[in-house]
Design brief:
elongated, mainly alpha, about 190 residues
Length: about 190
């Protein structure tokens, strides 16, 4: 028996089960919601996959730019006569600084911050429209060439200042590090790099 008061049930218990017809309608509704969520998730994953694949390609392309920067600047000066070689180099440094964590692809939100730094007074709607015209492959991110094209369209003022913390010898140091990392481990040991 115990110390608790007990009595017989006088009120029937509440039943929370739904009638059969209501259960079927809810299951169909759940399937529609799950299908919509799956479709949205698939789109997002596909975009991320495409961006990752493109970022690997852009990273290798940018390393080639870095190694042959003087030749690249000459071609870019012909394409964008409004900028000097120093302006193009400083735009490259701004790009590198902005995409540091994004593997050489510039997303729209980071571009907004960069344009605010350049004191550009273009409206956010106009910026987005210009970004979309440059992002022809619909990756939701742009590479270095597309970035320069966008900056040219937006008439960024010159001279373009160098971002703080970027040394003039940065390219030589990065090229030297890349050469060392690509060297055979035996040669690295012979030169005492280990």
């Amino acid at each position: 028996m115990g110390s608790f008061f007990s009595s017989s049930l006088t009120v029937p218990p509440f039943i929370f089960d739904l009638p059969e017809s209501k259960v079927k309608d809810d299951e169909e509704e759940k399937v529609d919601v799950f299908a919509a969520l799956h479709e949205e998730n698939f789109k997002m994953c596909e975009t991320m996959y495409r961006q990752n694949a493109r970022s690997k390609m852009e990273e290798s392309r940018f390393n080639v730019y870095r190694r042959n920067w003087s030749e690249v600047v000459q071609k870019l000066e012909e394409k964008y006569p409004q900028w000097t070689s120093e302006d193009i180099t400083n735009l490259r440094f701004h790009f590198e600084f902005a995409v540091d964590n994004y593997k050489y692809l510039l997303h729209f939100c980071i571009l907004n911050e960069l344009l605010d730094f350049f004191q550009d007074d273009t409206s956010p709607r106009r910026r987005r429209a210009m970004f979309d015209t440059v992002d022809t492959h619909k990756y939701e991110a742009i590479n270095f060439e597309e970035y320069l094209q966008l900056m040219s369209t937006m008439n960024i003022k010159k001279p373009v200042t160098r971002p703080a913390g970027f040394d003039k010898d940065k390219d030589e140091m990065l090229t030297l590090c890349a050469d060392i990392s690509e060297t055979h481990p035996f040669k690295q040991m012979c030169y005492g790099l280990f």
